[in-house]
UniProtKB/TrEMBL annotation, chains A, B:
Taxonomic source organism: Lentinus tigrinus ALCF2SS1-6
Keyword Transmembrane belongs to the record: no
InterPro entries registered for this protein in UniProt: Beta_hexosaminidase_sua/sub, GH, Glyco_hydro_20_cat, Hex-like_dom2, HEX_eukaryotic_N
BP terms from Gene Ontology: carbohydrate metabolic process; glycosaminoglycan metabolic process
Catalysis performed (reactions): Hydrolysis of terminal non-reducing N-acetyl-D-hexosamine residues in N-acetyl-beta-D-hexosaminides
First-tier enzyme category under EC: hydrolase
Pfam families: Glyco_hydro_20, Glycohydro_20b2
Boundaries of every Glycoside hydrolase family 20 catalytic domain copy: 151-483
GO molecular function, one term: beta-N-acetylhexosaminidase activity
UniProt protein name: Beta-hexosaminidase
């Protein structure tokens, strides 16, 4: 991203037209344009300076007004919908765009190779403006941007199983994600605690495994959410975490679960309740195959995950049925695990999707995976290099940088003085300091598809969703859009103390814009500091 | 609190009458009864067990129904309003009540010595009930309670200066506070960052010192808030923090502020911006006198605070005006500080209010205070004993147990890896483990009036208010209502592992009730655990 030399004020004409300058614009682009048009005039965010918008009154009087925004598609290909562009393979996404605010005659030009690129440009365009008493204006009227992401995968991983979130929460989150140009919702939809996903092949799974009849994502809900996401340039990667984290399947199908709710849970699982799929059972393997196929066949995206984290071997060692299956088939538990992963990856691949898997499945259990598998590196950022050595593509989701849930103490009932396992709280600064290329060779860099911050919901729910995500998630969004360094090549939060100050100013602006749009992002500073960037720095 | 032997189911008749069985019930009691009556039937909270309310269907069929609640005043005195009872001296509050649910003829009896006691009983009564498909019922139909608080001062300290909160936030918080029987809102209304309080004698203070014209508590707002609080049994202690934490006064009256916004702020203040009242200046002293009197004269309560924390001596040492004043008057800065405190305490006392002061003013600066002063012990719980040695009454507000804002990293712009100064996050377990009598002799115990959890708002705002307070504040509310030990005399979270589990179950119930009533309290556990108390304990 590069901006013009000196800021110059430009108003938005109240008659602003957004023109599509190519044939047959798809309906979802038209809808996106209407949303932009609406937000341009409903946003009431004023600049974060002393006096807010009133500081610009004098300049506003004689400022020129932008009368149109012209959207151009420069590829020459017929326009495909945003949804179609979103659902191409992750490595083939076309998100670049150019925006020139005053390209003569008080018209702005937004051009891209795809409707998805235009959509990214609209997100930028609609956040350039301030409000003062109904007048919309920018201080960067000469802005010219050539913008594209450093990484195609920029995600948010969302656990809707430990506690349930209404559909409206997810839609609001998708909107906010699109404003910071995130490209993936990685949906950790089910877990051992509850099974809120309606599965066509096995409706009993959610009927018996959800917290209640009101806490289920029906097939229609999932379609709605995926469509809503895709229209906003966001791919949905559904994670059916397995073979661990599956106890809730046992509510309907106890025959598939080993060590179900076995006590003490801490011997058999990372968190309560214990329970894993009986991977050695041919019946369970058949169930898993149908289960994955049933979910995959309803998803348009090109990515899907079988999870695979935190498998507990003792659970299977002490399970009579599993031991009998192993003996009968004359295989080891390791063979069975390999076969399970091979099976579910096969289903995913058969549905024309790239399989995702959690890093411990590869690094701890040495399970062989398909060559194009994407590994979710989660335990620690140190694991990235080991995954890269195996020549596997991966995304960064390190608990020591990106976990949104850390730092609020233990949630077990009687572990009074306990910390959260991933203490301390991951500040925006911590997330923002992440280097996607740390410890990687130049040759390994293409293996990095991007990264994501996860919210695990043991201590979260609808009530604090916005405030635990925002604006921290935007810090990671900037890392994966802008890349390993700042645009000028310097490190993001290096020895240059002012880079943190500048990043904070951007994040403060985003936070106030989010609040203006109804997303309850937390304050990062007293407003006194927000209005005076740098003055709350240490030693200032 | 003692409950009956075995739980027995009791429904609430949809015709339930709440009768006042004494002459001339005050209007605020009548209003409280109407709120209770309304909530009894609008609450839709179901028991936190598997199957929720449906688990009780069979028992519900033939359960007896409560047809009336009879309110008795046993003092024999004429009934005073809740507001009047709330505004008596803290040591004279009458909050005890008795509640007998089925006192023959399907009538319940609630009796107390005061309308405030009746109000506390109503808070208990209205939270006994579950909902199942519109039927309201309790599992403790034989409940008999004799209940009273261990400490009269049970507070929440609220900073509305670092970031501003709309009046509606404060009213909602007061409602929730009353549900857990908190008795004091300690209102840290102004600070160095902003001055949101309209002061009759000096309207320019908020006109120039507030963040904006929309971020001011007008006199009417304050009256509304105090009245609303008092009607809910909550006293309001206004803190005019001084002589530190006053930079915002300088926006209108720069002549009263030493080292205003002096750089680097960290030499002259605990946080930006620097600035303290010129305590040696006779003009400033006169200003402070009028300022305190103007605010005090509009407040009905019997308590008021001059704060006094984090005074910075270098600020005055380097201030030419202060040095000139000291020289001219031939006094030391210590003399000036003593005189300042004597002056503002004098104003508070002259308005028939008990003065509150922060503990460092007494322990660090050895400022002499009035005998009946209440000290706010804040730096560490260890300071309580030192205050007690001086024979001063005090409240507990230790940063190492009760600060709601800790653990989210530093908010200074360039201190990238910094922690919050009071790391780590204070969990509900931490707050709940507090012993109000730790390190005190038996003789010193009467000096403890109670305690409070504060929210400092550097990183908080309207957006996360509910979720950062609730339900943690309820843990402290229980500590100061129930006392130093559990009702059976054992320690609250001692070696008995199940006490934590039982406390968590109570807190989970409260959290779900708060959410049901529209307060966005965070989840403490996955719902799986909530529905199975104890099953998520370690080693279970």
């Amino acid at each position: 991203m590069s901006t013009g030399d000196s800021p110059s004020i430009l108003k938005l004409s109240s008659d602003l037209d957004i023109h599509v300058r190519f044939a047959n614009p798809p309906p979802d682009l038209r809808a996106a344009i209407m949303r932009t048009q609406s937000r341009l005039f409903s946003d009431s965010f004023q600049p974060l300076v002393l006096g807010r918008g009133s500081a610009d009154t004098d300049q506003l009087k004689n400022a020129p007004a932008l009368v149109s925004l012209e959207l151009m598609l420069v590829s020459g290909r017929p326009a495909r919908s945003i949804v179609e562009e979103t659902n191409v393979a992750i490595e083939a996404k076309s998100e670049a765009y150019s925006l020139s605010l005053r390209d003569g005659n008080n018209s702005a030009i937004l051009s891209a190779n795809s409707t998805l690129g235009l959509f990214r440009g609209l997100a930028t365009f609609e956040q350039l403006w301030y409000d003062y008493q109904g007048i919309k204006y920018t201080l960067n009227g000469d802005m010219k941007i050539d913008d594209e992401p450093a990484f195609p995968y920029r995600g948010f991983s969302f656990d809707t199983a430990r506690n349930f979130y209404p559909v409206s929460d997810i839609l609001r989150t998708l909107d906010a994600m699109s404003w910071v140009k995130l490209s993936v919702l990685y949906w950790h939809i089910i877990d051992s605690q509850s099974f809120p996903l309606e599965v066509k092949a096995f409706p009993e799974l959610s009927e018996k495994g959800a917290y209640s009849a009101n806490e289920i994502y029906t097939e229609d809900d999932v379609q709605l959410i995926v469509q809503y996401a895709n229209e906003r340039g966001i791919d949905v990667v559904m994670e059916l975490d397995s073979p661990g984290h599956t106890t809730a399947i046992g509510a309907a199908h106890p025959e598939h679960i080993a060590c179900a709710s076995k006590s003490p849970w801490s011997k058999y699982a990372s968190e309560p309740p214990a329970g894993q799929l009986r991977i050695a059972s041919p019946t369970t393997l058949a169930f898993a195959k149908t289960f994955f196929a049933s979910v995959a066949s309803n998803l348009p995206g090109k990515m899907m995950s079988s999870g695979g984290d935190e498998v507990n071997l003792l659970c299977w060692e002490e399970d009579d049925e599993t031991q009998a299956d192993l003996a009968q088939r004359n295989i080891t538990i390791s063979d069975a695990l390999n076969q399970f992963v091979e099976t579910v990856q096969g289903v995913i691949a058969a549905h024309d999707k790239t399989p995702f898997i959690k890093s411990d499945m590869v690094l701890t259990h040495n399970v062989p995976v398909l060559n194009d598998t994407v590994v979710v590196v989660w335990q620690t950022s140190e694991d990235a290099a080991a995954v890269a050595e195996r020549q596997l593509r991966f995304i960064h989701q390190p608990s020591n940088y990106f976990y949104l849930d850390c730092g609020a103490g233990d949630w077990l009932g009687n572990n009074i003085a306990g910390n959260s396992w991933c203490d301390p709280f991951k500040t925006w600064q911590r997330a923002y300091s992440f280097n996607p290329y740390a410890n990687l060779t130049l040759e390994q860099r293409p293996l990095v598809l991007g990264g994501q911050m996860p919210l695990w919901s043991e201590q979260s729910s609808s009530e604090n969703l916005d405030s635990i995500i925002w604006p921290r998630l935007a810090a990671a969004a900037e890392v994966f859009w802008t890349g390993a360094t700042l645009p000028d090549g310097t490190s993001r939060l290096g020895k240059n103390a002012t880079s943190g100050t500048r990043a904070l100013a951007r994040l403060n602006e985003l936070r106030y814009r989010l609040v203006d749009r109804g997303v309850k992002a937390i304050a990062l500073q007293p407003k006194w500091c927000v209005l005076r960037p740098g003055e709350c720095d240490l030693d200032s």
